[in-house]
Specification:
Elements lengths: L13 E5 L4 H12 L4 E5 L14 E4 L15 E6 L10 H18 L4 E7 L9 H16 L3 E6 L2 E2 L4 H12 L2 E4 L6 E2 L2 E2 H10 L9 E4 L6 E2 H12 L4 E4 L5 H11 L4 H11 L9 H5 L7 H18 L2 H4 L12 E3 L2 E10 L3 H9 L11 H13 L20 E2 L2 E7 L3 E6 L5 E12 L2 E12 L1 H33 L7 H30 L5 H4 L9 H30 L1 H23 L3 H23 L3 H27 L2
Parallel strand pairs: 1-2, 1-4, 2-3, 4-5, 5-6, 6-11, 7-10, 8-13
Antiparallel strand pairs: 9-12, 14-15, 15-20, 16-17, 17-18, 18-19, 19-20
Helix pairs in contact: 1-5, 2-3, 4-6, 6-10, 7-8, 12-14, 14-15, 15-17, 15-18, 17-18, 17-20, 18-19, 19-20
Length: 655
């Protein structure tokens, strides 16, 4: 682990930090401020740092591509950190890196800066390095050619919540139970924990030797990306299968990573190109110069997960998310591995009145909307071996941290500002529900935030499948809380009728879909017991018991999809997609009439082709209105595609 004492700042002047908005730079800034250093941040957009620095920290405007803007920034500087690179730039990033490094080092030399500290990348320069790694090492050479004292640290993968490599690994493991692994997954690296990397960067301030030095740093483990993914999966309790494939170009790998991880394709391509090179420590000089003892890979990953929990627990959603209520993507936003659904409502009452319904939530008071659904959820939890909703709450008026509240537990309580609940029901992951109240010009703003930390693919499927229900229940709960607060103040509410209308329309869509299902079932019942059983079926035909559960789920998803499109754009703007929706329902019921009612697999085959076209057209039309609606239609389209093949096979076998 990292061991270093408090910095003795004697003889050290102001520190210039470039790249403070980045992953490493932002964490280094916090440590420098905590240890009492005088810090000046160089930023192209100082406003981006305004709310992240201590009152004693300066933020100056400057651009490493504009030498004139750097002169004032270096005045009075003792040591400058260079944590800049152009990996995300669409242009020729190598030439950009050369120019930026030369400008920075030249300005530092002109201003009499004692030392530069730079973070580069590991890799054997005798091998054919990727453009990215080659540029990182070339940047160190350029800094040394323009300044006499440069401390360069060369590191491999950085393990920490938020780092590019770690987030790529996390996303792959969390989202893919079966991974197709190209050759670069087996290349060796020597990962380092973010805390240990920062310890090295801080220790560079205390080096007495003025000479330029290169230090190769890394943890004690030399492992492949595949081994890192397996260790992450082990600590998260996930079982993952990895299938090795010999061919997958960096371009294809980057597109693949862009689909399943948070990486942009252009960044992913540069990263994947670098992964073909082993990044191992070949020089142990750092171990003899610095009192830093890096953590093992197992400790680094465990530490990253613990730190993420701590950072999450300290997060105030009123700060982390726009209080103006920015439009959310379907399924919510992301915070690390967590999925977040946050919404606000402004009420015309003071914070104390707005918070009253929140502190009374649960127990006999209920959850302000669809209490029967909450009771059903509690009953299902009880059946699954969970705590259920039977615990209620200790007191109807007051709450204390640590006490149970139905199937939640109070994690934070600051009346009249904040209530955070941690879920204790059975879930494929972890969940929190938080309420915040802040004063506003005309009353108060209530923010309600649901957070889910999914456990693997099962957790992700759970979140997205029930997200339409969340839209209804969480929206209704927030409106119920707001209405209760305003009602206590004698203010009439205008939201209840809208909520009732949404509920009524959802019930209508469900009724229409299952009416079509009922018509098909009536036709099916005429032949399924005799004629259908006598038909010759292909060996791969599913068992008869499977069709009922599958079609029930598909009809329910159809209904939710149609409702989401209506909810998003209204009847007037949804005429065409909802007309296609109705057409495919008619064709859906008609297929059962032809196949089972008229006992004509040939006519049913012709009809199911038209049904498939109608479903595909509906999916495309829905996609233009609601991404989630189109996603909910995708299983229906896939099942019908299989049904076309099955219908054709049965027609051929029984001619």
């Amino acid at each position: 682990m990292a061991t270093h004492g408090m910095q003795d700042s004697e003889g050290s002047g102001t520190i210039l930090l470039s790249g403070a908005t980045g992953y490493v730079g932002g964490r280094l800034l916090s440590l420098l401020q905590e240890q009492g250093y005088r810090v000046r941040c160089l930023a192209r957009r100082p406003e981006a740092l305004k709310d992240r620095v201590a009152p004693t920290t300066e933020v100056v405007r400057g651009d490493v591509f504009d030498p004139g803007s750097l002169l004032a920034a270096f005045e009075g500087i003792d040591t400058a950190y260079y944590l800049v690179h152009s990996m995300g730039d669409d242009r020729d990033f190598e030439s950009q890196d050369r120019l930026a490094a030369a400008n920075f080092a030249s300005a530092a030399t002109s201003a009499g800066v004692r030392r530069l500290v730079y973070l580069g990348g590991l890799g054997n320069p005798g091998e054919q390095l990727s453009k990215h790694l080659r540029s990182r090492q070339e940047t160190g050479d350029i800094l040394r050619s323009h300044h006499s004292s440069v401390i360069e640290f060369r590191a491999s993968i950085v393990i920490g919540s938020g780092s590019l490599s770690f987030e790529m690994i996390r996303a792959l493991v969390e989202r893919l139970p079966i991974m197709i692994c190209p050759r670069w997954v087996q290349v060796k690296a020597q990962p380092i924990a973010i805390e240990d990397l920062l310890a090295y960067l801080l220790a560079a301030l205390r080096l007495p030797d003025p000479a330029s030095r290169i230090f190769e740093i890394g943890g004690p483990d030399q492992v492949s990306y595949g081994e890192i993914m397996r260790e992450y999966a082990r600590q998260r309790g996930l079982r993952r299968w990895m299938i090795k494939v010999p061919l997958l170009t960096p371009y294809l790998s980057s597109l693949w990573l862009g689909l399943v991880t948070p990486l942009y394709a252009r960044i992913g391509r540069k990263l994947v190109e670098s992964l073909r090179n082993p990044t191992l420590v070949s020089d142990s000089l750092a171990g003899s110069v610095f009192a830093v003892r890096p953590r093992s890979l197992r400790e680094a990953i465990a530490r990253a997960l613990v730190n993420e929990d701590r950072e999450f627990a300290e997060t105030r959603w009123s700060d982390a998310l726009s209080s103006a209520g920015k439009a959310r993507s379907w399924g919510g936003a992301r915070f690390g591995s967590r999925l977040v659904d946050s919404r606000t409502r402004t009420v015309s009452v003071p914070p104390e009145r707005a918070f009253d319904p929140i502190r009374r939530i649960g127990g006999k008071t209920g959850w302000y909307y669809a209490n029967w659904l909450w009771s059903l959820r509690g009953f299902l939890d009880l059946l699954a071996g969970g705590v259920g909703i039977r615990r209620g709450r200790r007191d109807p008026e007051t709450l204390h941290v640590g006490e149970p509240l139905d199937f939640w537990r109070v994690e934070a309580f600051e009346a009249p500002k904040r209530l955070r609940l941690r879920a204790e029901m059975k879930l494929p992951g972890r969940a929190w529900l938080e309420f915040e109240v802040e004063p506003a010009e005309d009353g108060s703003v209530i923010r309600q935030t649901a957070v889910f930390d999914p456990l693997g693919l099962t957790g992700l499927a759970y979140w997205y499948l029930i997200y339409p229900l969340h839209e209804l229940v969480f929206g209704g709960m927030l409106n119920g809380i707001a209405n209760a607060g305003e009602a206590a103040n004698g203010t009439p509410s205008t939201h209840q009728s809208t909520l009732r209308r949404k509920t009524a329309v959802l019930i209508g869509f469900i009724a229409v879909c299952f009416a079509a299902a009922g018509m098909g079932a009536a036709a099916t019942s005429t032949s399924v017991g005799g004629w259908y059983q006598a038909l010759t079926k292909p060996s791969w035909s599913p068992p008869d018991w499977l069709f009922g559960p599958v079609w029930t789920a598909l009809y329910f998803m159809m209904a939710i999809a149609g409702w989401l499109v209506w909810k998003k754009v209204g009847w007037a703007r949804a005429k065409w997609p909802l007309s296609l929706f109705g057409l495919q329902l008619v064709l859906n019921a008609g297929w059962s009439v032809l196949f089972f009612g008229l006992r004509s697999p040939g006519m049913a085959l012709l009809e199911i082709i038209f049904l498939w076209i109608a479903i595909a057209a509906t999916t495309l039309a829905f996609r233009r209105k609601s991404g989630l609606a189109a996603l909910l239609f995708a299983p229906y389209l896939a099942w019908t595609s299989f049904a076309v093949v099955l219908n054709f096979a049965m027609w051929k076998l029984n001619q």
